[in-house]
Amino acid sequence: MKRSVLAAHLMPLLIPFSLFFVYGMVLTLAQSTGWGAVDDYRGGFFSAYEKILKDPLFLQSTIYSLWIALASSVGALFFGSLLALAIWQLPRRFKLLAGIYRLPIILPHITIAFIVLFLFSNRGMVPALFYHWSSGETLGPFSNLLYSRGGGAIILAYIYKEAPFVVLMELAVLQNIPEERIITARQLGAGGFRIYLRVILPQLRAVINTLFVILFLYSLGAFDIPFILGISEPSMLSIQIYNLYFKSDLVNRPLVMARLSLMFLFSLGFILIYLKAAKNLDERVRKI
Amino acid sequence: MKNGSLVFKSIRSLLTVSVLILVFILPVLLLLMLAFSSAWRFPGPGPVAFSLRAFRYVFFQSPGFFQSILSSTFYSICTVILSLTLCILPARALAWEDFPLKRVVEGLLLSPVLLPVMTFSMGIHILMLKWGLTGTAAGIVVVLTLFNYPYMLRSLISGYQQFPRTMTETASNLGAPWHYTLVRVELPQLIPAIAAGAPVVFLTAFSEYFLVFLIGGGAVPSLSGYLFPFISGSDYPVSSLIVIIFIILPLLLFTLLDSVVYAVYKKRSLS
Predict the structure, then answer these.
(1) A279 at B interface, C-beta within 8 A
(2) How many domains does chain A have?
(3) Phi first, then psi: what are they for B50, rounded to 5°?
(4) Domain, as residue range, for B30
(5) GO cellular component annotations, sorted alphabetically (chain A) (predicted)?
(6) In which band, very low, low, confident or very high, does the pLDDT at A131 lie, cut at 50, 70 and 90?
(7) Cα gap B49→B46, rounded to integer Å
(8) CB 3.0 to 4.6 Å from A153: which of A104, A146, A254, B133, for a disulfide?
(9) What is the ipTM of this complex?
(10) Does one domain contain both B99 and B21?
(11) Interface probe with B: pick from A96, A110, A216, most Cβ of B within 10 Å
(12) In a shared domain, residues B109 and B170
């Protein structure tokens, strides 16, 4: 392919990509310094950043968002891996039934939020069952899930939505592990847990690493689920940004854009550092 | 010993199946129960009364339902078509050619699904506002394509990687112009790749609430936008019914897609 032909091939995506993503990000970065956002902007180049980094609400919602992203991605990976293993070991006659795990993949995030809401809100079905079982004495351990400061309801919704995705990706790898390997390991005296750790997990490591990056960054910046299940304080960064962008004065625009820029830089750095670390880890394991 | 491990295996299978039913089937049954009830009030546990109120309301009384379902289907299909159109040539180049910085270009082009949606959406909103795309179906198709085309790109790249290049070379040696080769030789071979990418793009577009709400601003109806007030208004029966529609509709569409792909293949192999 000649250079010009190659360029012509890539143009259909490179043009919209630069027009919207690159230009949009440049605009975001520019407005975070006050340029192009407010006519008579008084602050200095980095004053929006200085201001938000000193804002306790920003720090609080950053920590909260990181916590939710970490808990839901680790939770989804943990439960997804368990379920993938369990489904993989099911006898053939149950495989069709096991396909039901894909349901949350096709469900939109807001419907998952609704399912968590009707099951676990303090007037929901699970607390109601506890109420009946205990003859009105208790609403059970989930009664305060929705209003807990730990964001339990949001984390639960993300796990329900994302664990099946983990199952889907891991099953594809698991199905390609030759059975002889497991049999050999067993004949050499390895127990179930040891086989998982030493034979199966190394095969899954690459997919787990990729999934962790995808799930962590997704839940860090997503909107739908915390919009329905979140509480006002602490709130997730995405909700805080949305509220500032639409519901506050234009003077605050640089503050919104500075938050977005920090989120962007963090995500970029996270991808680079994590993937590099994961690669190194893999190589080290291989050397051993 | 052998017997013991067999018992252990059966118990394990039973446990897995029970968890699957409890976690994935039971919620759907509860949704069905709610959809057929007039209301649900704490402490339940059953509904107040069985009724078809939700069905009556959604299908006959509420003005927005059919409009929103049609609108969602329409812009999601447009998103699939636009993604396919934009991705086909880049996928061809990324699958077939080696060029400097290829990994970087590929990573960059696949990045929109990796980075948090929020980071770009406000910048894109300002641009779309400037270019008069907010509040229009076109704007929604553009924004949904921007965030979802990587799924299509990835499946087209793997489609092209499995595609015998000699077929394209034969066609061009015989004098076929490039666009003819693309449409008549390559596209039919890419149907499995398209059939793998299209449902994902369709589904993510169809399910999206935030971007549609951000760019559409309520001017373009959508099924997720239709559902939202019922969730925040705690109307459990109507919300449940719409969630069930969200389950059934994609399944119907995918069955349809499968049979179309199958029919196309059958026709081609026969002719």
Answers:
(1) no
(2) 1
(3) -80, 140
(4) 2-53
(5) plasma membrane
(6) confident
(7) 8
(8) A146
(9) 0.89
(10) no
(11) A110
(12) yes
Q: What pTM, to 2 d.p., does this model score?
A: 0.91
CA distance B244 to B27: 11
User: Domain boundary residue among B174, B201, B220?
Assistant: B220
Report pLDDT digits (tens) over B231-242.
988 888 999 999
Overall domain count for chain B: 2
Q: Are B94 and B197 in a shared domain? A: yes
Above 70 in pLDDT, residue B225?
A: yes
The rounded distance, in Å, linking the Cα atoms of A167 and A157 is 16
**Band (B178; pLDDT cuts 50, 70, 90):** confident
Q: What is the pLDDT of residues A26-67, one digit of tens each?
A: 999 999 988 877 777 777 788 889 989 999 989 999 999 999
Query: Which of A89, A278, A83 has the alpha carbon at shortest distance from A177?
Result: A89
Asked, for residue A126, whether it belongs to a domain, the answer is: yes
Nearest to B209 among A108, A118, A123 (CB): A108
User: pLDDT averaged over chain B?
Assistant: 89
Specify whether B80 is located in the same domain as B207: yes
DSSP string, B101-146: THHHHHHHHHGGGTS-HHHHHHHHHHHHHHTT-TTSHHHHHHHHHH
What average pLDDT does range A167-179 have in this prediction?
90
| Residue B235: predicted pLDDT | 87
Cβ pair B127:A123 closer than 8 A: no
Q: Distance from B173 to chain A by nearest Cα, in Å?
A: 15
Span A213-252, pLDDT tens digits: 989 999 998 999 999 998 877 889 999 999 988 888 888 8
Number of A to B CB contacts under 8 A, please give it. 219
Distance CA A6, CA A95 (A): 45
pLDDT tens profile A183-216 = 898 889 888 888 888 889 988 988 898 899 989 9
Locate tokens 């705690």: which residue? B234
